[in-house]
Amino acid sequence: MIFQDSWIFAGERGFVRGSLEICGERFDKVEFSGDVPQEVCTKAGREVCGSSEELLLLPGLIDIHTHGNSGYDFSDGDLDGLRCMGRYLAANGITSFLPTSMTLPYEKLDAAFRTAAQYKETREENGARVPGIHMEGPFFSEKKKGAQNALYLRLPDAEAVEDLNRPCGGMIRIVDVAPELTGTEGFIKEIAGNKAQNCRVSIAHTAASYEETRAAFSAGASHVTHLFNAMPGIHHREPGVIGAAVETEDVTVELICDGHHVHPSIIRMAFKLFPGRICMISDALRCCGMPDGSYELGGQQVTLKDNVARLSDGTIAGAASNLFDDLRNVIRFGIPVHEAVMAATIVPARVIGCDRETGSIEEGKLADLIVCDKDLNLRQVYIGGKRIK
């Protein structure tokens, strides 16, 4: 399969004119027509190329934090439900994802994690890849639990993580923790220090101070879950988690870009504070892709109305949009296109250690590809060189 005379996404260079050949399941030849790159996108919904016939070729998007969609949640431990989630994501341009758990009893987490392993072994061609699992909870602060169920909060326990990781074949790629909890430093050192495990420790659902967060980063934590949400804001005398993350240059951060969790102005600020370190995430719930109504989340009821999901007390829960919609959002909010696309592709691929296989359009990598028109409308999706939309 050959794409000729198209605009190919080339990382920091933006979109560059060229041709692309796919052989089998991988990109075989990527050739550019000239050395001068051209940024052909400015804002989603506005003209980005000179001709309506021209195509934009992007790497498949990678969502490292998503709970569910289409009425299903990863924590259900339902293989058919997870397959439905994978098909929905693939059809929307998300070719890889980390199914993300909730704060629940260990036995429920174990069932869900085993389901992820089954999915990976038997993935359908039209389903998104699952390179790993994001374990969100239960090691959180009660003060910043957000939509997590307080009944199941626990202190950090590396042995429990190992017991969950073993039956699913070591699929946990991110595990979250609040730095202020007792035993956090030892927990981080044990998890992050095991390089063979390939698991990042992420700061999340926390009321930690700047000093506590710096100590967590020094111990080996290297990621922050949904920046700004479920953590203290920046104060000029108490910089907190955000201030510590800005100063620690090897730390990556997640950002929910549905326009509800984080104001567009703060999204623009975040991209300036964390250049090349942002992973756009959906944090989508089972209500994603569904009509307004009531849905379950970790044993709690969530009401979806006008694309915002809330608990009964008004707390915003996870999101109801997918990562492709979020990508269009941030471009509309004014983020340069190359920065936005990288935050949804190669940066998350690096975080979970699959950047040698996917996350960018390069010769030898898996041909996970999305094709858009000049207005950034999704037209085609390929996973491993096979067209699934």
TL;DR?
By secondary structure, the chain is an alpha/beta fold. The protein has 10 helices and 20 strands. The chain has helices at residues 79-91, 106-121, 158-165, 184-193, 210-219, 240-247, 264-273, 323-332, 337-343, 346-351; strands at 2-9, 15-23, 26-32, 56-59, 61-66, 68-69, 72-73, 94-99, 133-135, 172-177, 200-203, 223-224, 252-256, 278-281, 293-297, 300-305, 308-310, 369-372, 378-383, 386-387.
Q: Which features would summarize this protein structure in a list?
A:
alpha/beta, Urease, subunit C, domain 1, TIM Barrel, globular
Number of strands: 20
Overall number of structural domains: 2
Rg, please?
A: 20 Å
The outline comes out as globular
Main pleated-sheet profile: 7 strands, mixed
Question: What are the SSEs and their pairings?
Answer:
Elements: E1 2-9, E2 15-23, E3 26-32, E4 56-59, E5 61-66, E6 68-69, E7 72-73, H1 79-91, E8 94-99, H2 106-121, E9 133-135, H3 158-165, E10 172-177, H4 184-193, E11 200-203, H5 210-219, E12 223-224, H6 240-247, E13 252-256, H7 264-273, E14 278-281, E15 293-297, E16 300-305, E17 308-310, H8 323-332, H9 337-343, H10 346-351, E18 369-372, E19 378-383, E20 386-387
Parallel strand pairs: 1-4, 5-8, 9-10, 10-11, 11-12, 12-13, 13-14
Antiparallel strand pairs: 1-2, 2-3, 4-18, 6-7, 15-16, 16-17, 18-19, 19-20
Helix pairs in contact: 5-6
